Amino acid sequence: xxxxxxxxxxFRRVTYLHPLEELRVxxxxxxxxxxxxxxxxxxxxxxxxxxxxxxxxxxxxxRRKPAGDRKTYKEMMPRILINQIVLMLPCMIIAERLxxxxxxxxxxxxxxxxxxxxxxxxxxxxVIFYLGHRYLLHSKxxxxxFGHDVHHSTTANCAxxxxxxxxxxFCFEILxxxxxxxxxxxxxxxxIFSVLAPSIGALGGLYEHSGYEFFPNLSIASTKAHFMHHNxxxxxxADGFGxxxxxxxxxxxxxxxxxxxxxxxxxxxxxxx
Length: 273
Hints:
This protein is mostly helical. It has 13 helices and no strands. The longest helix has 27 residues, at about 110-135.
């Protein structure tokens, strides 16, 4: 392709969000704070909505099993709020102040760059989450040391349980798999992506812990993988709603590999409960 074409206005209009990519947020705009507030609204509104559905027995045709978990909604809430307010919010603000994330002032970016953002977040999150989840949190020595047993005291049958974790566990499962890819993107990210990313992640997490299955025939949108993880413990460490599942497929730890091989925790070297 002739080099002059790449610089033409036609190519610019096709591949860029022209003229919106020129919009910028003010330099002192608190991107991290806004992203956190939006995540909190998304998480708690949807969790509350699904809890009402459970209590009133709405949408029961979409449930994997009857509503109810080992912990009640009220029992889980204090720990979740501590994780979100005391851990997540300060970490996001500190990452912004240190220049690690949320530095791009552009509201939107080029389509190729936006695709790059989603690839970095999707693959980066999958790799980091899998490694920490399988080799630290599900190791025989790390399962109780890092408090992952707290999260597995629930059965992925209540949306709120997505963030029901020990503080250390929350850092490994929620903060690091999100902050590190954002840091890798650096200035190649944009304000809109930075603001929406935590909410998108929270949406996936609460859905796959909800006990609902709205898309049974669409594997990437199914909740079966994480439901199987909570019931078996040693399968589908990153494979779940919206996840590319690259690491689980690479290492043969998807739940369907288990169904084919009928492996047990000892064969896979994992903590099962």
